[in-house]
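Appendix B. Raw example, untouched.
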Amino acid sequence: MTSRQHTHRTVSRGLIRQRGFFRPGRGLTPRVRQVASLTGAEREAMWTLYAAAYDGARRADFEKDLSEKHHVIVLKDAERRVQGFSTLLVLEEAGARVVFSGDTIVAPGFWGQTALQRAFIWYLMAQRLKHPGAEVFWFLITKGYRTYLLLSRYFPNHFPRHDAPTPPDVAALLDALCRKKFGDAWRPETGTLRFAGEAARLTAELADVPARLREDPDVAFFLARNPRWAAGEELCCLARADDAFVEKTTRIFL
């Protein structure tokens, strides 16, 4: 192990021991929960948030996504009301540990907070520590530029991206994951998912892209690579949860 690797693993272990990433953020407290531990009231609150964010949302699709996941990050406000969530599934492919995030919603009144980001970063660091010999990746599918910005802002080695080609090994891993999980919906020529029938899509309010952000290179890249995002098409992405990721996120949040 190099001294740099040792430093980053020590930092990660200290963060997890201290649970520093779980301090409240702008009134939201995050918790990583097993899906089976959710109460009926919590599931109902999560569905309400999901339905408010997506036109064409179907309860059956929401429940299916939730049932397939191992964990869920639940965000609650000071009154213990659910104000956001993100579902999580850990996959193994080609010797790598891959964290796939499914449905992810934060109530508009809490946009700009970092509770979800910190909890998700903690989750990835925990995977690194539990499996020190394996590469760890975030597998993301997104029809919204905001989520793509989380990828580009916090993960130095994320793909696809505007300023570098996707390495062959990452492209092969992404292809294998998409073929296995999404089958015929995967379109490798565009790097997107197009599902049969009418897909859930962001509401007009959430889908709006301010003119000033269209000039951001990451936003412009997302819109160009996924021109059917407003119709619910998903861009498929992979990011390495590597030493560069640990270094950057610990510098930002601690």
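End of appendix B.
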